[in-house]
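Q: A reviewer asked whether we had any structural model of the full assembly, not just the individual parts. We don't, so I'm hoping you can provide one. Inputs are below.
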Amino acid sequence: MRVFSRVIACWRNLFRKKDVERELSDELAYTFDALVEKKIRQGLSEAEARRWSAIELGGVEQLKEKVREAKAGYYLESVLRDARYAGRMLLKSPSFTTIVIATIALGVGATTAIFSVVDATLLQPLPYSHPEQLVSIQSDLPDIGAPDVGMSQPEWQDLQQSGIFEYVSPAWFDENNLTGSAQPARVRIVSVAPNYFALLRAQPELGRTFDPQYNSPGYLPEVVISDALWKRSFAGDPNILDKSIRMDTDLYRIIGVMPPGFDSPGRNAEERSIEVWAATSFYGPPLPDHPARNRRNLPTLIARLNPGLTITAAQLRLDALAASLQKQFPGDYPNGWRIQLQPLKEAVVGNFRRPLLLLLSAVGLVLLIGCVNVANLLLARAGARAREMAIRRALGANQGRLTRQLLTESLILSMFGGIAGVGILFAVREPLLRLVPENLPRLNNLGISWSVLISAAGMSILSGIIFGLAPALYARRLDLIQSLNQEGRSSTGSGERTRSRRALVVTEFALSLVLMIAAGLLLHSFWDLLNVPLGFNPQSVMSVRTRLPYPNDTSIDKYATAAQEAPFLHELVRRCGALPGVEEIAIGDSASIPLDESQRALNTLEGKFFVTFEEKNSGAPSMLERSRVTPAYFHLVGIPLLRGRLFNEFDNDTTPQVAVINETFARTYWPNEDAIGKRLKSTRPDSPWITVVGIIANARTQSLAEQDAPQLYLNVYQVPAKHLAIFLRGRVDPASIPDRVREQVQAVDPTLPVFGAQTLTQTLSESLSQRRFSMELITLFALTALLLAALGIYGVISFLVSERTHEIGIRLALGAQRRNIFGIVLGHGMGLAILGATIGFVFALIVSHLMASLLYGVKPTDPLTFAAVSIFFLGVALFACYIPARRAMKVDPLIALRYE
Amino acid sequence: MSIRKYKPTELLQGTLDLLILKALVHGELHGLAIAHRVEQITNDAFEVKPGSLFPALHSMEEAGWLASSWGESENRRKAKFYRLTKAGRRQLQTETNDWRKVSSAITAALRTT
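A: Here is a predicted structure for the entire assembly that you could use as a starting point for your response.
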């Protein structure tokens, strides 16, 4: 009853406001008159009676407001009224409103953009059912410091039968040659266990996936293909199921098509955009029928934990399993063995956490600085509105009411800013998405999701509260009498406000210096990376990829041995070497392409390369990076020979195998000896001895940022390779060369695909793309922050100058030098800037240590960066103060004195 | 009359409501008359100020305890008269019982030594 009656009253108060107000007026008017009559009857004069009645009522208007506050729906109504009023006020000063909305739009828009990336990458779970059960399994040989060595087939089976996992599947990323259509194509394929799709709980959009129980030797003659391949190579043929495709000369039946947007949980873009899934039990042709326990050729394993098992519990049981296996097969584990579980998501996105969080913090700082700037503007305006506030207070508005009114205004500004920011973001999202480096995991669609919108709304509200707080607090301290007596003069009573504005400017400067130094450090790192001595010459070298098939029936492999492959290579060298503009030609495996991160995975495909050394027969095997190349490779990429000899035309499959190593290799393994003539061999069964014949200079072919690692080069005429790269030096046309090379390759073998044509400078630049992305964005944010801070200090100093025009006039009239006036104003501004910079400096030291892992060759306390940024920073501050200081200097004392 | 200066709000919460309900038991009254009646029935112990009275009246009316109508006052002016509704009488009963409980409890508490 009571609630019902209140709702009706609320309705009436909101929608029949005029009636309600008139009744209230009438009632109180009567009350007032009745009081007055009573007082007159008591013998007072009419004027006195009215005065005393007004006092007794506490003022008719004030009393009305008190009654209104007690009425139902008052809060709702006052919010609406505040909003209407705020809208009117903001429309009255359009330029102010525009500046504020633009600042917030910029801040919220940029923050939302970065947040949407963080959200899709780090926050959202992997797009598979029950992603918390999915893990990645890595095994290490701790005694020889070899991380992530892969697993062998028997070890995989042990894990599968351990009772810890529901399913365990290797994921063996590779390329294959898809033939049968007009042009042979290279497809990205992953060999998985038949339980792979059951493990991920993934459903096809067409057909079915593999039978998880399948366990026969060799490959299942079935494949599942991606939606992209279906549309591209089969024109989305609805009758695609049960059609056959030929890959690496083997026939497979297509049994299913995965939906668009289904990605494999891979560590890089290549591994995620898989086109064909093939299933195998990882024994039987082309692999051995009885795989050895120590032949760890399965590079990555993913698994789904049994329900109810946590990762920690599973890890404990795995440790016990590893210990018991080591006891059972001591011969296979001479170097210790450790299996480590990691959430699958961590394996996929782990590397991106730090750079993304850095970006998010940076852009958040820009938003915060934007808020501080707006707060500053609002404070400046608060002076002009002091009288308005005082009048409203005098008319009965209480303080809470005024605070709320000011906050409503701020919130309206920030909400419009937020809406504008998200709107602009929505409009430019396509070009923005192209800026995001390709290797960023996009298992979840990057886009403006609900969580992103909600966070944008949250950010807008929060920023509204942040920048609205300063003027609201200021209004609270307003001295009513003084403000009313001011008669519009703006100079007095502003001490409080000036102090707040100075504090805001100092904050702004501190925040933007932190950002500037972070950007400076990244810029410096990047600069160092760009200028690191490469040790090889990427100029005018182009690499084009091709690939030899790897049939499941090894007996039909045309390129199984070095002797079989050599004629092909010789013919390729002859033909491509004769192409117009080509001055030098060499061939290598995919690992020999300098700085090509995407090919790194293929390198480990045939198992990590472990070697033992002849004279250190007790020593543990070492894991090495290995490339196979033709003799001309070293001269072509410009790596000089230091000692011994390079490969030559007399090295072939009939002569003893030879190796060229880099300086680091020689120094690491034979520190006080001559490495030439030393022998080593692969740990694989039946491997021949390999003799070191030459030492070449170190070159950063693996990674720009990493110190030179030991490198082993073998002769591709002695040790055949399937994933080939053709290197061409000369004045070749990057646009037409892929076609020319394709013609030549297919003239030798028409089933081979030709792809991946790139200049080495392109590859180099791509290897830096992620660093460049972070650096460019942070620099952009830092410059925005600096601009905002400079505007802030300019605003405050200009305001001080105009406020002190009178005082400056008096000083000048009394004989002060104009130069001194200039100095005073400038010193004032610079004092604020230096104070801000000092505070920022301290914070920057903390922040720079947190981002140490993102830096290259630069210490977190790099004095050059700190000094350069601080000087630049103070220079900008000086410029921002210079303009108002000059204005102060030019004040005409006559005008200044007459001013009031 | 020294205790006259106590504002009702400084006493127990809801006391003013109870006094207003009680003041209206014998028929409708307008605002000032209600204040006067409260002073009368409390032997001038409380002075009800307009700043408390009118918000309370409006809020009670909206709660459905009071109803109002416009009528002529003793000096032939248009005035707003308040009267108890059925819900108001029930409320008076409830609040009276509550008050008795509280008051006897406090009295008992104060009597202990």
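A: Points you may want to mention in the reply: The radius of gyration of chain A is 38 Å. Residues 2-72 of chain A form one domain.
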